[in-house]
Amino acid sequence: MTHLPQEHGPLEPRVLQAAEWDGWYDALETAFGSAESPERRAMWQALTEVDRSLAVWDGDRPVGAAGAFSFRLAVPGGAVLPAAGVTMVGVLPTHRRRGVLTALMRRQLDDVHERGESLAVLTASEPGIYGRYGYGLASWQLGVRIDRARARVARPAGEPVRLRLADPAGSAADCERLYAAQVPLRPGMLARRPGWERVALFDPPSERGGRAPLQCVLAEDRADATLLGYARYSVGISWEHGGPGGEVRVREVTAATPGARAALWNYLLELDLTDTVVAASLPVDDPLLHLVSDPRRLRSQLSDALFVRLVEVGDALRSRRYAAPVDLVLAVEDEFCPWNTGRWHLHAAGPEHPAACEPTEDAADLALSVRELGAAYLGGCTLAAQAAAGLVRELRPGALARASAAFGWPVAPWLPHGF
Ligand SMILES: CC(=O)SCCNC(=O)CCNC(=O)[C@H](O)C(C)(C)COP(=O)(O)OP(=O)(O)OC[C@H]1O[C@@H](n2cnc3c(N)ncnc32)[C@H](O)[C@@H]1OP(=O)(O)O
Question: Which of 69, 130, 233, 407 is catalytic?
Fold first, then answer.
């Protein structure tokens, strides 16, 4: 067991009690140097899975925190797997660099393993923190800040859809059904747990900063009114410089057809009195890159998104599909979860077929740590690129190219919302 210095006592994370939530969350706010609105705090309290929330105590004071959500995550091939969504991690500034986080991660990954979840995922406040615990950076995202005057999206030919403004809450059930149908199609997407639609709709007046309320525009089939897509966004207009200067903030664009997608982006880029359209997170292969007249005017910025940790390597590798036939032995090193260390024989006949993955004593073709495997798992970060960075070693000529092609996927992974 790790220990705090003498005056602090032993470092034993324990599961939170519901009545302790306020003090626990206060500690998190102090750790993050932030103070949330009462509405946001209430939302996170309602969504907290108390039985998966851990705290380290110094006397009666929580000094370290870590939580998890019971998510389901889409992986290459369309399976949507149980995954622990690691969240609400923080240690009070007075108690840092003494191993509190490491003790929390130890307990949490043991709990995740015991529950039988083969994956844990997170987004990092600082990407340097989690590699030591076996998390690899598996997906990226594009933020865009579109100069509306210079970038256009044409209306879809034949006008296959009709746009209709709808009450965001009133239309939520239909929109969530459409979202759910999209989840298996893109690795990295999270099935929305019951209650999580409130994150998508969260819009308290206290957090609007003078902007108009959240809007929802539906794209419906012109013939039979089937819902084909929707966009949630808000507008803020400023008259400060002698004329209108508005910003459209896009929260979500979900579309089941190319026509719906084009119609929604055309709408968002044509809103009067605005000059900038901002979207904080799009997939790196978002069709918008091809729809827009001048992609340079997207002023896109790449940033890290989802980190993936394979908690049970064999189960995780069996549970996804592979883009090309693969028959390889991987020598995996996992210091933090040693049950994964060893050689694994991965075998799959291509994307149409389930994979097999079992421990083996055969000679290895590739050597890598669980972190690189996590980075490659969703198909968005190639093993070849990681080998070029010196992180993956090819032990049999040709194995790297074959493995890299098999672990890739035609659709880039993307995390649709934070947690
Ligand atoms: C999923 C999420 O919720 S992400 C949010 C993470 N939380 C925050 O960023 C809030 C502000 N920061 C904090 O609360 C703390 O500094 C934490 C949680 C990041 C680290 O907690 P600590 O208890 O200080 O970490 P701990 O002492 O266990 O350190 C373990 C290792 O991580 C390293 N480390 C700790 N913080 C960082 C960091 N921000 N960047 C890089 N390395 C770090 C330590 O140096 C140590 O390295 P070592 O094993 O080589 O000695």
Answer: 130
Tell me, what DSSP letter sits at residue 170?
A: T
Taking each helix axis as running N to C, give the angle between helix 38-47 and helix 21-32, from 0 to 180 degrees, rounded to the nearest 10.
Answer: 120
Tell me whether residue 101 is annotated as binding. yes
ipTM: 0.97
Q: What is the pTM of this model?
A: 0.96
Question: Per-residue DSSP letters for 314-363?
Answer: HHHHHHS--SS-EEEEEEEE-SSSGGG-EEEEEEE-STTS--EEEE--SP
DSSP H or E stretch at residue 252: strand 245-255
Q: What is the pLDDT of residue 378?
A: 98
Among 343, 346, 313, 355, residue whose Cα is nearest residue 327: 346
Q: Show the ligand 1 pocket: residues with CB < 6 angstroms.
A: 31-32, 86-91, 96-102, 122, 124-126, 128-129, 132
DSSP state of 153: B
Domains and CATH numbers, the chain: 6-117 (3.40.630.30), 142-303 (3.40.630.30), 312-407 (3.30.1050.10)
Predicted confidence at residue 2, as pLDDT, reads 47
Q: Is 14 annotated as a binding residue?
A: no
Q: Tell me if residue 130 is catalytic.
A: yes
Residue count of the chain: 419
Name the burial class of residue 19, with classes exposed (0-12), middle (13-18) and buried (19+) by CB atoms within 10 angstroms of its CB: exposed
Do strands 366-369 and 326-333 pair parallel, antiparallel, or not at all (unpaired)? Answer: parallel
For 173-189, give one letter per residue: b (16+ CB within 10 A) or e: eebbebbeeebeebbbb
% of the chain beyond a pLDDT of 90: 94
Alpha carbon distances (Å) from 110 to 52, 84, 102: 12, 12, 12
267 is catalytic: no
**E-assigned strands of 8-108?**
14-15, 54-58, 61-74, 80-91
Q: Are 31 and 93 in contact (CB under 8 A)?
A: yes
